[in-house]
Amino acid sequence: MRTKTAHPRISVVVLTHNRAGELLTTLERLLALPENPPIIVADNGSTDNTAALVEARYPSVRVVECDGNLGAAGRNHAVACVETDYVAFCDDDTWWEPGSLERAVQLLDAWPRVGVLNARVAVGADNTTDPTCTLMRASPLGRVGLPGPSLIGYMAGACVFRTALFREVGGYEPRLFIGGEETLVSLDLLASGHAIAYCEQLTLQHRPSPVRNSALRRRMLARNAAWVAWLRLPLGEALGATLRALDVFAREGTLVRDGIELLGGLAWCTRQRRVVPQSILAMRDRVRAAERNLDASATTTVSGKFDAPT
C-alpha cells in the first residue's frame, strides 16, 4: 500500500483544550482528506491525556504542547512549525471538507492581495450555514478584484492564511486569550493593504461541542473589545467600549475583579496604540449599517457563534 505524499503547499493547525474525544474524531476526518495536508495540533495545556492519545493513534500528526492554556495564542506555537505557504485553521469540533484546501491554494495563488480566506461553516448534521457566514456572504463591501465578498473580519477557526503574513502580524495577542481575538489581526491586515475574503467554495463542518462557558466568553469579549479599541480605534470609541465592558461586568457580578483587569491593561494598550486609517473605519461602518438593516443576529467578528476550545 502506497503512503500518500503530504501536500507541499498547505498545512492544517487544530486548536484543542481538554476535548480529546472530539479531537480524535476531527483528526480522523482530516487525515482522510485527499489533499493529505500536514496536521499540527496546538494542545493548550490539556489535562485529559490529549497528546499521548493523539501520538498513539495518529503518529503522523504533530502535537505542539503549549505551556498552559494560551487561548487563541496557542495557534501561534503551532504555526511556528508550519513549513508550507498556507495554513488552514480549525478547532477540535470542526474539520475541512474534501477539496476545500486544494481550492484555497488555487485561490491564494491567483489572488496575491488576499491575505485570508474565510470558509462557509456548515453547522450540524443538516449543514445549516452559520449565521455569521450568511452575513459575510451579504457583505456590502463588494468583491471587485477578489475571489469573494470583501470582509472586515474573519473566523479564527474557519480560515486559511498566508503563513508568512500570519507571522508578520504576530499571530494572536496572548493577552486577549479567547473572544474577538480576530479583530486586532483583521485591523492590522487591512491596514497593511491586504484583503480578507469570504469564499463559499471552502467548507468547514462544525459539530458544536457542549463544553462551553458562555458567561466567561461574554466577559472576555467585552474586555477584549475595549482593549482592541484602545489599541487601534479613535479615542471616543475606546472610551465607549470601556464603559460598555464595565456595564457587562456589573451585570455579571464581576465588576471589581474584571474591571481591575481591564483598567490594568490600558497602560499596555496605550503603549501599543496605532489608530487604523479612516478608510478602514469607513469599511467597518458600512458593514455595521448593512447588518443593522438585515436585523442581524451575529457579527462579522464572531461574537460567540463559533467558539474556540477554552
Automatic annotation (TrEMBL):
Lineage top rank: taxon: Bacteria
Record GO terms (molecular function): glycosyltransferase activity
Keyword Cell division assigned: no
Keywords: Glycosyltransferase, Transferase
Domain (Glycosyltransferase 2-like) ranges: 11-168
SUPFAM superfamilies the record matches: Nucleotide-diphospho-sugar transferases
Family membership: Belongs to the glycosyltransferase 2 family.
Protein's name in the database: Glycosyl transferase family 2
Organism annotation: Paraburkholderia atlantica
